[in-house]
């Protein structure tokens, strides 16, 4: 040990990689996944079984307000017009029996080419779950069963929503809402059983003209501006007997002027029998970061209060399961006591007598006990929060409590009921804030701040001034040392977006602390129903490069070692997210790109080595790892990366829309704006298993993204190999990173809509790629944007990039070849799979010359495995394993070792794996899962 750094010998490292470190990681993985993954076996592959994400051995969730999920179906198995039931796995599968079975509100997500259902979406409302369980709390799995739709089916239960003039009215049977079609209010009222509880929901944005509290000039004077959300369009996006979805679009308007800021999309979700509304809040950044510093983004509503201040209750929850619980005016700790039973009742949030009934002293003097009307919970960073309170405006604040991480759920209660309100991923998306104002009055105000006004302002200015990079030559020189592609005007956050989730729940009384913690846990980790991975594999969900992990121990030592290493890699990154604090409003969901072993930090401040932005398919790796392992924590990590990657890493408006930005110190900082970052291939996993409307609209925004390549050239620093003569209808498109993204968008839109125009474009592209002199090894082509067809290259030149097949192209080609019969394309793709890492002699024989030294051979091993699986060539399968285990430009088992670095070498003790990078991890993980799926018997 030297200077606090724990060193081990090479032999110790190697032995730990086999026996110690990997074994420990595998044990941790089993602990996370046993209840879900171990319940899946081949027998379950014959029926569309669904489980709770956190384990099929878990009973009904403690707090449940509704769930929506997707189910895949084998080709030709389910008619597109089918209806669906959900039944308990043990219930009799007879259509005439109502026991243990409920009808589902369902809709199609995707179709096979023959018109049969490929994916369906389903909703389970609380009322239906209660009927399904019928008081039976025994843990259950469920089965989704298709059946012929009945003519009167939609009349069995009324729809949740209806239009009433300029309002949308909602009635879940418990919760009633009135939503204006336009104007300044998200909702007029939210009521429980007809009694108005919440009023005047509205959106707020606060801005400053200078970055106060951002470490700049001391105590700058600044002008604070207020913007209020203005709804321009309201759409009843879905309306059925079990669920209704209302979509609101608009922007924030400055009070007293015509200025607008931050366009938004809100979706409000209502479920039959639920007393809660889920709000998905998406905003797009359109400010000038040099002039407008966002100081607050929030949702505010009013709440009428009855009773006296001592009959009103405030609650805040901690991430540790603790609760801050107080009355607005306390009866405890006073010089006089109203009695132990009254004190205990108030502390528990139960009804207490009015002041007049507490005795003469309280009737006369309770007015002198302060009523604390205002509360603020502030989470300015990932590791600390405070709760402050004051009696009223104009009076001083006092510190009431502090802690590490708040759960982001709070409650305000009175005699007639209470509201629980919370922000999903509250501390992870800091700075966040919850405000209660006027709880001592007849009408309180609650604000959920997605960006906290009491924290430093949102400073999105470029982190450097260009450093004199005024020409392409200088920018290339800078790229050579910092790995950052800089160009003036490109380092802008204009058009990036952020999606957050909020829940409001109306309750008949103030919940107990335990009940509120259950609500907080539901908001943080919503109960999810998901199809079994065995069923998904049988239904050919997604690409062919994954298979569920077998519950039995693999016989081959290398297979077992690979499984342990897969767990180790995920667990290492899961640990790094926490240790390195990869959290924050704009950062949460991403990971870092490359490590600096000298400073013992990830290269957070070095050009293109900082935030990963999905480089080399880190998101696809996470989704494949979840599909392979079934781990709930892996699902949630992949979900967070999908939210981040589809929003923050992509420009949604402006000159770069809808392209994404390459990895950088700031997510939007790199001037390489590319389809490979915004690709639908990264996000379709989450869309299909969750039926998430926001991801669905973001994927649809990519269907014409290729047209942006006419004016934003991916290769502008190195030249355009085939510049088109007619840029109005043509663009230069690479056959790898560009076309893989284009094909993913077109494939997804075709299967979602059945529109043959997208199929025709795909076929035209596939056919003309195959018709090139060297197929995929031609590298680029000029695409006719009207048809998708490529012009034939007459130069005969070879062009191949190691990046072509590491941004989702293998996965998308695997899906395309399942649904489209284009024999020449299949031949061209298999040629690419086999020749990329073939010998120079083999390349020369097929292409006329060798391809030279190519990188990322380990990641390309799964392409060999695919070719072996398609052709039955065992030699290719053996070659795939040999190439993968060699670790060229990737990782080996010996790299998967954690070293502990201790203070004072670092600020606090951390784990590091110096030879691990996100690029190699993503490609190693995809390769390992792909080989285990395609050629497991050829190791």
From TrEMBL:
Any coiled-coil regions, as ranges: none
By its UniProt entry, which InterPro entries does this protein fall under?
Answer: PcRGLX/YetA-like, PcRGLX/YetA_2nd, PcRGLX/YetA_3rd, PcRGLX_1st, TAT_signal
Which residues are in the PcRGLX/YetA-like central beta-sandwich domain? Answer: 165-520
Q: Which residues form the PcRGLX/YetA-like C-terminal alpha/alpha toroid domain?
A: 526-938
Per UniProt, residues of the PcRGLX/YetA-like N-terminal RIFT barrel domain are 47-128
Q: Name the domain of life this protein comes from.
A: Bacteria
Leader sequence segment: none
| Name of this protein | Tat pathway signal sequence domain protein
List the top taxonomic levels of the source: Bacteria, Pseudomonadati, Pseudomonadota, Betaproteobacteria, Burkholderiales
């Amino acid at each position: 040990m030297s200077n606090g750094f724990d060193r081990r010998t090479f032999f110790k490292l190697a032995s730990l990689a086999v026996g110690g470190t990997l074994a420990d990681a595998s044990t941790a993985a089993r602990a996370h996944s046993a209840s879900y993954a171990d319940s899946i076996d081949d027998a379950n592959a014959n029926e569309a079984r669904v489980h709770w994400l956190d384990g099929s051995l878990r009973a009904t969730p403690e707090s449940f307000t509704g769930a929506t999920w997707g189910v895949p179906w084998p080709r030709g198995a389910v008619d597109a017009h089918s209806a669906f039931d959900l039944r308990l796995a043990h219930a009799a599968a007879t259509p005439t029996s109502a026991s243990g079975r409920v009808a589902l509100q369902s809709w199609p997500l995707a179709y096979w080419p023959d018109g049969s259902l490929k994916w369906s979406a389903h909703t389970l409302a609380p009322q239906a779950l209660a009927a399904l369980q019928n008081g039976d709390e025994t843990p259950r799995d469920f089965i989704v069963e298709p059946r012929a739709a009945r003519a009167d089916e939609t009349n069995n239960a009324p729809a949740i929503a209806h239009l009433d003039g300029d309002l949308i009215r909602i009635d879940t049977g418990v919760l009633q809402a009135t939503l204006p079609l336009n104007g300044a209010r998200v909702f007029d009222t939210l009521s429980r059983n007809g009694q108005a509880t919440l009023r005047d929901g509205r959106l707020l944005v606060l801005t400053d003209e200078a970055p106060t509290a951002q470490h700049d000039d001391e105590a700058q004077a600044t002008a604070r501006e207020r913007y209020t959300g203005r709804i321009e369009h309201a759409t009843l996006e879905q309306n059925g007997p079990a669920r209704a979805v209302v979509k609101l679009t608009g922007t924030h308007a400055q009070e007293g002027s015509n200025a607008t800021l931050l366009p938004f999309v809100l979706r409000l979700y209502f479920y039959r029998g639920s007393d809660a509304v889920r709000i998905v809040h998406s905003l797009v950044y359109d400010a000038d970061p040099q002039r407008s510093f966002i100081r607050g983004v929030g949702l505010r509503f009013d709440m009428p209060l009855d009773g006296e201040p001592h009959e009103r209750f405030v609650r805040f929850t901690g991430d540790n399961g603790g609760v801050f619980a107080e009355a607005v005016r306390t009866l405890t700790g006073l010089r006089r006591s109203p009695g132990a039973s009254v004190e205990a009742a108030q502390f528990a949030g139960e009804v207490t007598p009015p002041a007049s009934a507490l005795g003469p002293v309280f009737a006369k003097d309770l007015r002198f006990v302060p009523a604390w009307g205002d509360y603020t919970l502030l989470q300015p960073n990932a590791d600390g929060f405070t709760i402050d309170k004051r009696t009223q405006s104009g009076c001083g604040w006092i510190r009431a409590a502090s802690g590490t991480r708040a759960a982001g759920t709070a409650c305000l209660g009175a005699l007639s009921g209470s509201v629980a309100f919370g922000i999903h991923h509250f501390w992870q998306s800091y700075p966040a804030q919850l405000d209660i104002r006027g709880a001592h009055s007849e009408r309180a105000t609650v604000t959920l701040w997605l960006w906290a006004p009491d924290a430093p302002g949102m400073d999105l200015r470029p982190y450097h001034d260009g450093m004199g990079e005024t020409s392409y030559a200088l920018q290339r020189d800078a790229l050579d040392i910092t790995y950052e592609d800089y160009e003036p005007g490109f380092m802008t956050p204009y058009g990036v977006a952020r999606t957050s989730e909020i829940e409001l729940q109306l309750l008949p009384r103030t919940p107990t602390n335990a009940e509120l913690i259950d609500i907080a846990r539901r908001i943080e980790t919503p109960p999810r129903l998901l199809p079994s991975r065995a069923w998904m594999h049988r239904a050919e969900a997604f690409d062919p490069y994954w298979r569920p992990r077998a519950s039995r121990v693999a016989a081959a030592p290398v297979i077992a070692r690979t499984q342990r290493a897969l767990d180790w890699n995920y667990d290492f990154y899961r640990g790094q997210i926490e240790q390195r604090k990869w959290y924050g409003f704009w950062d949460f969901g991403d990971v870092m790109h490359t490590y600096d072993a000298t400073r013992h930090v990830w290269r957070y401040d070095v050009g293109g080595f900082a935030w990963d932005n999905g480089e080399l398919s880190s998101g696809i790796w996470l989704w494949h790892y979840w599909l392979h392992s079934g781990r709930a924590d892996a699902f949630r990590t992949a979900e967070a990366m999908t939210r981040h990657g589809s929003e923050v890493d992509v420009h949604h408006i402006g000159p770069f829309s809808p392209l994404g930005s390459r990895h950088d110190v700031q997510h939007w900082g790199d001037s390489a704006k590319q389809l490979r970052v915004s690709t639908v291939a990264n996000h379709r996993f989450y869309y299909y298993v969750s039926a998430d409307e926001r991801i669905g609209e973001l994927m649809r925004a990519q269907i014409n993204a290729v047209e942006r390549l006419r004016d934003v050239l991916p290769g502008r620093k190195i030249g355009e190999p085939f510049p088109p003569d007619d840029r109005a209808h043509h663009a230069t498109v690479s056959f790898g990173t560009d076309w893989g993204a284009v094909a993913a968008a077109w494939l997804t839109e075709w299967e979602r809509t059945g529109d043959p125009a997208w199929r025709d474009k795909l076929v035209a592209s596939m056919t003309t790629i195959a018709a090139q002199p060297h197929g995929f090894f031609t590298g680029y082509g000029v695409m006719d944007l009207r048809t998708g067809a490529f012009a034939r290259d007459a130069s005969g030149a070879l062009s191949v990039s190691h990046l072509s097949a590491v941004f989702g192209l293998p996965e998308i080609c695997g899906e395309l070849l399942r649904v489209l019969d284009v024999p020449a394309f299949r031949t061209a793709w298999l040629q690419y799979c086999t020749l990329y890492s073939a010998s120079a002699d083999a390349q020369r024989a097929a292409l006329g010359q060798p391809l030279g030294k190519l990188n990322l051979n380990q990641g390309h091993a799964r392409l060999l495995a695919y070719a072996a699986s398609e052709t039955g060539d065992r030699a290719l399968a053996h070659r795939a394993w040999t190439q993968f285990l060699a670790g060229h430009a990737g990782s080996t088992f010996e790299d998967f070792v954690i070293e502990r670095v201790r203070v004072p070498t670092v600020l606090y003790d951390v784990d590091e794996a110096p030879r691990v990078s996100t690029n190699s991890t993503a490609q190693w993980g995809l390769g390992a899962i792909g080989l285990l799926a395609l050629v497991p018997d050829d190791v």
